[in-house]
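pls design
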């Protein structure tokens, strides 16, 4: 990635089409070629913050229309290595959203009930209805990420024919990618707009953030020794992310790889992409029929002539 900083054009939503961020269908993504410190059009933190605040305001206005029109829903997926900033990005970018129209779901280790069903079962009940926004903090993609790095987890799903790790081959993962693609295509065809963000933090930056969580007492609760253990599998995780993103980034459900070493850029980029996507829907408030308009005028007359 080149780090060209030009004057911020806050109304252009350039980042939605930034080829350094958007993974086009058929791409051969190599994460080692992407700079986690990339800052695109921003010359500094203040420049990015200005656009983020503008986008937060626009997002609030667009959410109102999304809710009122009840034609589309928005599903936002966040995936990342630990300490990349998923929680803080959701907190900052969605700060202007009406909580009544937005639900955040964090997917943890599957329960016994969830393991007794197919791996997409637990996802379905958290999908947004029309007019709503759903945010997934981790998602169905864990089923081709953490299970790819630790294939023994698949055995707990008791899938017919998969009774040993040896049975989990390339075809198995190919089939899972196809299942996810078909699932997301079905959602898109029925009005769910899908945005998928991989927050790309460097291994060095993750180490700094882990140490900060240990050194600062108020952040101790965020730290888990298991997170450090997973660092041993860093290269395997990068390979799993590359394969998952390359196989499932589609026009109707694109992946964006967001450099995450500079949190201020990460938040601004995510916000701008969400706003640009909502704007592209050409949303509008529902039209009122002549009969409904007559009723409104009648109600107006009654209110004006109401006896005090």
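designed seq:
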């Amino acid at each position: 990635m080149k780090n060209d900083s030009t004057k911020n054009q806050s109304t252009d939503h350039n980042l939605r089409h930034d080829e350094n961020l958007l993974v086009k269908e058929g791409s051969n993504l190599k994460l080692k070629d992407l700079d986690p410190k990339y800052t695109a059009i921003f010359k500094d933190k203040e420049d990015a913050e200005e656009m983020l605040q503008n986008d937060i305001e626009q997002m609030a206005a667009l959410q109102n229309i999304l809710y009122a029109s009840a034609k589309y829903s928005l599903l936002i997926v966040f995936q990342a290595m630990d300490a990349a900033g998923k929680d803080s990005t959701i907190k900052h970018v969605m700060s202007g959203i009406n909580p009544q129209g937005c639900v955040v779901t964090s997917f943890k280790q599957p329960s016994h009930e969830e393991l007794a069903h197919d791996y997409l079962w637990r996802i379905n009940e958290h999908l947004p209805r029309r007019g709503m926004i759903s945010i997934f903090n981790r998602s169905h993609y864990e089923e081709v990420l953490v299970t790819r790095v630790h294939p023994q987890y698949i055995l707990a799903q008791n899938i017919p024919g998969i009774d040993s790790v040896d049975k989990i081959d390339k075809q198995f993962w190919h089939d899972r990618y196809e299942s996810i693609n078909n699932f997301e295509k079905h959602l898109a065809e029925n009005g769910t707009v899908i945005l998928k963000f991989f927050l790309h933090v460097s291994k060095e930056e993750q180490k700094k953030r882990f140490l900060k969580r240990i050194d600062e007492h108020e952040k101790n609760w965020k730290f888990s020794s298991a997170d450090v253990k997973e660092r041993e599998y860093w290269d395997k995780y990068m390979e799993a992310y590359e394969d998952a993103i390359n196989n499932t980034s589609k026009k109707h459900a694109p992946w964006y790889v967001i450099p995450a070493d500079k949190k201020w850029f990460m938040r601004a980029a995510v916000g701008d992409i969400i706003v640009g996507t909502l704007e592209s829907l050409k949303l509008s408030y529902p039209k009122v029929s002549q009969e409904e308009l007559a009723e409104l005028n009648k109600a107006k007359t009654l209110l004006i002539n109401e006896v005090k």
